[in-house]
Amino acid sequence: MARRFFIGGNWKCNGTLKSIEDLLSTLNGADLAKPLPEVVVAPTYVHLAWVKSKLREDFAVAAQNSWIKGSGAYTGEISPEILKDLGIPWVILGHSERRTLCSESSQVVADKTKYALDKGLAVILCVGETLEQREAGKTFDTVAEQLKPVAGALSSWTAVVVAYEPVWAIGTGKVATPEQAQEVHAYIRSWLTDNVSPEVSDTTRLIYGGSVTAKNSAELGSAKDIDGFLVGGASLKPDFVEIIKSAP
Ligand code: PEP
Q1: Which of these is catalytic: 47, 95, 97, 185?
Q2: ipTM confidence
Q3: Does the annotation count 165 as an active-site position?
Q4: CATH number at residue 139
Q5: Could you confirm whether 47 is annotated as catalytic?
Q6: How many structural domains compose the chain?
Q7: Domain range spanning residue 171?
Q8: So what's the pLDDT on residue 185?
Q9: How would you classify residue 193: left for phi > 0, otherwise alpha for psi between -120 and 50, otherwise beta?
Q10: Which one, of 20, 239, 195, 192, lies nearest residue 227 by Cα?
Q11: Verdict on whether the full-model pTM lies above 0.90
């Protein structure tokens, strides 16, 4: 079945009023051929509502994280209910920076994913191995360990996009080869067939993240099981428009 190509831009902890205004004018002014891939950008929380109000209507916004529960006495957190109320449709969960720097376990990521989906958000769920895990031959095991609690928690995957992001490729300039990325995407698809259902495996978009640029996006995007990208560094630059244009 045809899966609509998906391109996410993760702005991480970046942006000033001036740099975001410049980026918005680049994105809003881009002349893009139809049909467009699905394009979603994730500014910081404080910029989110503003970016949403200024961004072209054929692109959407995502939060970079959401709280594991509803609104309440959780200082510094943002609940899926708050995001929903603001009209934010997407959230990124399980990014390796949050798994590593904020000690989010695969179970926490699964619980956050379930809660966000239950409240009506769509989720970009990130998985991926470290260099050490890859070199130890544990890439597939790592990805399976990250997906397992999610499969246990969810009753529907229709609003989930899975981002395979090898940690060694994030922000390093060391992009996975199309063969390396395809191999893991094919594994994730077969894992979904075996552990969720053939239908979920067939319909869920699997996107690649890790040093995607306008130079490598067309080749990566032509791999059979790569349904799009999650882009970090290059999503802050005009390069992002070229990546969108390179979508198959
Ligand atoms: C990311 O942070 O999700 C990412 C893929 O970053 P980069 O494109 O900079 O490697």
Answers
A1: 95
A2: 0.97
A3: yes
A4: 3.20.20.70
A5: no
A6: 1
A7: 6-245
A8: 98
A9: alpha
A10: 192
A11: yes
